[in-house]
Amino acid sequence: MVYVSGAFLPIEEASIPVMDRGFLFGDGIYEVTAVIAGRLVDNEAHLQRLDRSLREIDIPNPHSLGTWTAIQKELVALNGLTEGLIYIEVTRGVSERDFLSPADLKPTVVIFTQAKPVRTNATLAKGAQVITLPDLRWARRDIKSTSLLAQVLAKRSAAAAGVSEAWMVEDGMITEGASSTAFVITPAGEIITRPLSHAVLPGVTRRAILRLLEERELTFVERPFSVEEALKAREAFFTSASTIVMPVVTIDGHPIGDGTPGPLAMQLRDLYIEAALD
Ligand code: PDD
Question: I need a labelling partner for 204 at 20 to 30 A (CA). Which of 45, 46, 85, 257 fits?
């Protein structure tokens, strides 16, 4: 079952009009929340980011936080989803193709679920390999836009290289993963991730991980880091709703640390999942 603008429908019966601006212009916002043991993980933060993204591009938020949550929970129950992802998309709505649109347009809402392993992951045992690529995205990456062409191309390059993620680079510095936040741990033990700005998505998992580090009085620094610095890291990992915390074992073919999943990344992963189940 999926949810489309007010109705729960079997996916075969659900459709979006050809003139939807999400389809024509990528004029929309999305969110992805993990579901573990039937529970929505960090969902309030995802819905707050959805609200912020919508405000930034002047699409009215069609629902309150409470209504969004109720719809999501109903869909999770209807689909009997215990583990996987729930995806929300809100587009500016439907109108004849023109860059400008009528002011009173009703946003289109689509929600679907995907059953897939989240707690475990086929890549986890060996760790992820990543390549670095130029960051081809636009200048407002803090907005979770459905215009994802640069990320699709980065993921295709990663797949062609036989690796699972691409870390994107601007002015010699790593911005983030194609669909994740990048972290490195220096040989001195400093945990680094890039500070929030228009250059990166404010990751919900990133925020939760920084809180876990704070609680444990582990020092972290929010600053840009270069590819050279990443290659010398003791550990590297990336975070996202779908991968939680994923240790990185090679960057551009160079082993990170001893080339096996880093202990701190694995520990943070366990702690995050534990907190989600709490
Ligand atoms: N991607 N950076 C980018 C560019 C992302 O697309 C994502 C998430 C993240 C991590 O954000 P969070 O921790 O809030 O999931 C960082 C989702 C999972 C996706 O596009 O499928």
Answer: 257
Nearest to 198 by CA among 243, 257, 137, 251: 137
Q: Which residues of the chain have pLDDT under 50?
A: none
- Which residues does the annotation mark as catalytic? 144
* The pLDDT of residue 258: 95
143 lines ligand 1 (CB under 6 A): no
Amino acid identity at 171? D
- Ligand 1: distance of its center to the CA of 102 in Å? 31
16 lines ligand 1 (CB under 6 A): no
Is 0.90 surpassed by the pTM of this model?
Answer: yes
pLDDT digits (tens, 9 = 90+) for 49-59: 999 999 999 99
Q: How far is the CA of 61 from the centre of ligand 1 (A)?
A: 20
- Residue 87, strand partner residues: 32, 112
Q: Environment class of residue 159 by beta-carbon count within 10 Å: exposed (0-12), middle (13-18) or buried (19+)?
A: exposed
Q: Residue 278 has what pLDDT?
A: 81
Q: Give the pLDDT of residue 277.
A: 86
| Residue 213 zone, left/alpha/beta (φ > 0; ψ -120 to 50; rest) | alpha
Residue 207 C-beta-side C-alpha neighbours within 13 Å: 15
Q: Beta strands of 127-268 (E only): which ranges?
A: 128-134, 165-170, 173-177, 181-185, 191-193, 220-222, 235-240, 244-251, 254-255
Report the pLDDT value the prediction gives residue 38, as an integer from 0 to 100.
97
Q: Residue 70 belongs to what H/E stretch?
A: helix 65-78
Task: Note the pLDDT of residue 84.
Answer: 98
Residue 9's beta-bridge partner residues? 2
E strand residue ranges, 5-97? 7-9, 28-36, 39-40, 84-91
Do residues 86 and 40 lie in contact, with contact meaning Cβ atoms separated by under 8 Å?
A: yes
